[in-house]
Every structure is written in C-alpha cells, then in structure tokens.
Amino acid sequence: MQEYLRSTGKKIGFVPTMGALHAGHLALIETSKKQCELTVCSIFVNPTQFNDPTDFAKYPKTLTEDIIKLESVGCDVVYIPDVADLYPDGMQHLPHYSLGQLENLLEGKHRIGHFQGVCIIVHRLLDAVTPHQLFMGQKDYQQIAVIRKLLDIIHAKIELFICPTSRETSGLAMSSRNTRLNPIQREQATAIFQGFQTLERNPTWDGFGQTLLTQGFQSIDYIAFCDPDTLEEKTDRKRPFILLIAASISNVRLLDNYLFI
Ligand code: AMP
User: Fold this and answer.
1) 53, 61, 83, 252: least CB-packed within 10 angstroms?
2) Residues flanking ligand 1, CB < 6 Å
C-alpha cells in the first residue's frame, strides 16, 4: 500500500472514515480531490476507540453502498484494512500518546481511552497511506485538536485541513449514527441546531439543556461553552466561543458543535 502510493509520486490527500458514508464524508473527498492529485479514503471501524462495546457492535456497516458513493465522487483509492493489518500484535501493549488535559475534557471525560484509540489508529493509517494532506470534519471538533497534537508528537509533515460540518436541510449534523434514528427521533434531533440558532440571537440564553430534554432527548453528557483554541470552559459568553454538545436520543449519542464568532 505505502510503496504503491508513494511510487505514484503524486500529492496524496487522505480522508480516514469508519464507513457508513454520507454527504459529509463525500464533501471531505471532494475537497481533497481539489487540492491533491490522488485521494485515498480509508474505511475501518476502529475497536480501540470505542469505550462502549454495544456502540461498536451496532456501528452501521454499509460497505457496498460506500464503495458506490466513493466511485460517484471519483475517489482514487479506498483502503479497507482488517483488524489484523492494523493491530498485527493484538490490542495489548498499545502505545500511549501524551495528549495532556485535552484527553480528559468533554469527549475524553465521557469516553475514557477514546482519544488514545483515535491516535493509535490515525498514526497507523498515516504510516500506511503516507499522505501529504489530511482532511477531517469540524463536526468532531475535539478530535481535530487531538490530531493536531498527534501530528506534532510524531513530527509528521502533513497538512491538516478542516472541512465545515455538513448538515441536513433541517440543520441536523450528518452522522453515520443518524441511520439509527427513526423519523420522529430525527425530528427531535433538530433541537440541537435550533438551539444554536436561538443562541445566535441571544447568547445569554440558558435553556438549552432543558429544551433538549423537553424535545425528547434522553440524556445530555455535556453542553459546554469553550474557548475555541484551548477547549477550556468559558465563564462568560464573549465571542469567540465554541459550543460543544453530546446528547443522546434513545441510546443514539449525537455530537455537534457551533462556533460563535
Ligand atoms: P467518521 O466516519 O464518523 O469517523 O468520520 C470520518 C471523518 O468525517 C471525520 O473527520 C469526521 O469529522 C468527518 N465527518 C463526519 N461527519 C461529518 C459532517 N457531518 N460534516 C463534516 N465532516 C464530517
């Protein structure tokens, strides 16, 4: 893989995914295609980043449809490794990355070990694909900060590009997990984007959590107003700030964020 890709001598753009592709993923591929000569998409549901075995088991898998979608946007290479390709020595004695406070905040606090799993897999995928540019979505805002740190730790000369969050017309952030929502729950899930819009008009509004629960959300892991650079929680609502949310409807955990500038 590595030898073949580098032997092309082309500028390689890379989009790592876990499959169940939607228009948000395809937008990343299209951005890479504009900037690079060869675009690689990987599809791999990484076991080490799931702290909840049920979530891992239920993660949607739609490989045939994914390949058709990738062909439709002209993705050059799709890399679909097996667990044994990326974890040849099993899942014991894995490396540890010094991510500092970043891995204890927000997602890190609620999904212990998640970002170590993300770093392990992205590091291994980067070694396999050897890209010049890496394309990721703003949808996973904290993940981007983690990957920026990873690139620094491993001294990778890879440019990281952040693509905006793709949304349904309802405002719901596209996500592979949305396929697990029924039509009523999909409608309820739009309360997140509606909340962002309410806050645009009135940044001091304090009813976000209560509104989500009233609209049918079952639980809220966090609604955090943070500094966009450090991700530390802010005590005021002075712009710029980023609002990060993780909340569940019927055990489907939805993640979203919105930058107030
Ligand atoms: P995933 O397959 O969910 O691991 O996501 C693979 C990549 O696609 C990550 O960089 C995500 O941030 C990005 N992504 C997922 N959903 C969206 C979205 N709605 N808009 C933009 N990027 C996204």
Assistant:
1) 53
2) 17-18, 24-25, 28, 136-137, 139-140, 163, 165-166, 173-176
